[in-house]
Amino acid sequence: MRFLNAKKLQDSQLLEGLKKEDPAIFSYFYKNYYRMIEKLITSKGGLPADAEDVFQDALIILLAKSRQPNFKLTAKLSTLFYAIARNKWTNIQYHRKKFTGLNGQEEGIAESPLIDEDERLESVKKAILQLGNGCKNLITQYFYQQLSYAEIGLLNDNSPNYLKVKMHRCMTKLRTMVFLTTENNQV
Amino acid sequence: MSTDQKRAVIWRHILAGHSTPLPDMDPQTWKEEELLIKGIQLTAEQLTRQRIAKAITSANRQQRTKNRRIVILSIAAAISLLVILIFNFQDTTNYHQLAIASYSVAPTTLLQKNNQFKSFDKNKEYYLKGIELYTKKEYNKSIVFFSKIDKENPNYEHARFLLANAYIINDEHKKAIRELETIYAANNTATIKWYLAIALAFDNNNKCLPLLNDLSKTKNLYQKEAKTLIKQITKIKNKKIL
User: Fold this and answer.
1) Sites in chain B below the pLDDT cut of 70
2) ipTM attached to this prediction
3) Extents of the domains making up chain B
4) Cβ separation of B43 and A56 shorter than 8 Å?
5) Closest residue in chain A to residue B8, using alpha carbons only
6) Pick from B35, B44, B45: which is nearest to A120 by CB?
7) Does the global pTM surpass 0.90?
8) What's domain B112-241's architecture?
9) Which domains does chain A have, with CATH numbers?
């Protein structure tokens, strides 16, 4: 961490670290780009607290983008990060204005299906957290980090075929746990 | 195609960014799998957010520690500066130290004129008593007698010179300066100049420098001592600038 603070990292190194969710890289982003984002948000009518949220959201979006197989960096990483944060803030401002204008009527209309889905997602979340580390890591790497079986195999020293079988078992387990949680909630 | 295989096709389709199932896919299975994947992604994202928040907290903590270190270093630097200033200020007392090193008590014979007192003159008694005590190194007492002599008396200048020396020894430098300045106004010889410079140096007064400069430039009894003293004072001044 001390080493990273002192050194200016290349964009490719940052992207690699970001994909691995390296805490040192998160710190690096915060130390080097947070002021820039805060300045952007406060200059566009936001508060420092908004800047914190936008910073985190922008980092998540950048992380997701970097994991896309066809992702290619065509500008400086800081420029891309700045653009993501700016778009995010524009989006937030748009939604805030929209909901302030409707006085919450819209929320009332969309309430029931959203709550239903939220509940089911909450059940999924609970079930994932109850899974063993092996399954949790595998499904996260496959569905969130979007790594192929071959890539996961290289990281964990397993064959892709074994991982495929394991993945189906883990998903079946997860499905059962979600089903049980939903059943319990309904009772 | 087995159920697992069908599900695997659905996963790949969802991960490729499609939001609707293909015609050959079972909509119910699609819905279930889509919900699961969304849940997995949201949970993982939440964990990532926690990791980011933790990293930010750690970075902030590091920054605070760094700031604290800067404050401590600044305080240490300020204290050091203060110590240097105090040290420099104390260095001015070295004028005094130098004066002590350069000063030797004026002998009674120095500047003595022929006795111009009348017989049975009270001033003569005071003068002689003063000289006697001064010779015995009882400077405190000699001050009393020298001070009593009439200022109009022709011998008063010598008495005043010894009085000034007694004051110097008695650490009453301002009084010594006053007496020597009065004599110097009427008689600016090298001897008076030297003793006046010494009295000023004892008092840490920079006015001693022009007098010492004068003495160092012309040939006189105190030229060498004046040069040495100037050299030492210049050394102190340079040290203070540093």
Assistant:
1) 88-94, 114-120, 154-155, 239-242
2) 0.79
3) 3-90, 112-241
4) no
5) A168
6) B35
7) no
8) Alpha Horseshoe (1.25)
9) 2-99 (1.10.1740.10), 117-186 (1.10.10.10)
